[in-house]
Amino acid sequence: MKLIRKLYDYTLSWAHRPMATWALFFLAFIESSFFIIPPDVLLIALCTGHPKKSFKFVLACLSGSVLGALFGYLIGALFFASVGQSILDLLHLNAAFLIVQEKYAQNAFFAIFAAAFTPIPFKVFTIAGGFCRVDLGVFVLASILGRGLRFSLVGGLIYIFGAKVEKLIDKHFNLFTIVFTVALFVGFAAIKYFGK
Question: What tens digit of pLDDT does each residue of 42-87 get?
Fold first, then answer.
């Protein structure tokens, strides 16, 4: 918890830095293709620091995330053997990758939308999307809708409630961390369950 708290505090400090919006864009970009830290943490920090700019931050986060998803798609389509497989090995996502391929065969749009909106690891879906040659229009549309809805909910709540959200998170940080962690595990479990 202490390590996570330090990471949270460090991330929160970006809300007062000149390059904060670019940092959010970059974090959202790499999280969609190979990084494990979700951009929501920095998005919340920036929005609570400047509630009236919430939708500007949402747009930066969404743009970075969708471009990162396309980068993940590119890795899967052209560099799977050299790069994509290494990412899956490093993050222990090989089993999930096989299940995602099955999901794409059933309903690619829903699979991408669900992964973009929920804590399910999005990067495995972006890399698999390129590997499976999912229709690029479907891939981009589902990514925009899923990530757009997710980030807009965060930004919208903070825009409306402002500093109250920050105080709530700060006061109940451990609880939020546990809930997020459980949600992440549920996301992994959902991949396995629906793959049966």
Answer: 888 888 878 888 999 999 999 999 999 999 999 999 999 999 999 9
Q: How far is residue 123's CA from residue 158's CA, in Å, rounded to a whole number? A: 26
Summarize pLDDT for 76-117 with one digit per residue, the tens. 999 999 999 999 998 888 888 888 888 898 889 988 988 888
> In b/e form, how buried is each residue of 75-86, taking b as 16+ CB within 10 angstroms?
bbbeebeebbbe
Q: From CA 70, how far away is CA 138, in angstroms rounded? A: 12
Residue 129 to residues 26, 95, 96: CA-CA distances in angstroms? 21, 15, 13
Question: What would the two tokens of residue 145 be?
Answer: 């809708």
Q: Which of 182, 165, 166 is nearest to 9 (CA)?
A: 166
Domain boundaries, the chain: 2-194
Q: 71: Cβ–Cβ under 8 A, 6 or more apart, which residues?
A: 29, 32, 33, 126
Residue 163 to residue 141: CA distance in whole angstroms? 33
**Residue keyed to tokens 């939708």:** 55
Other C-beta atoms within 10 Å of 53: how many? 16
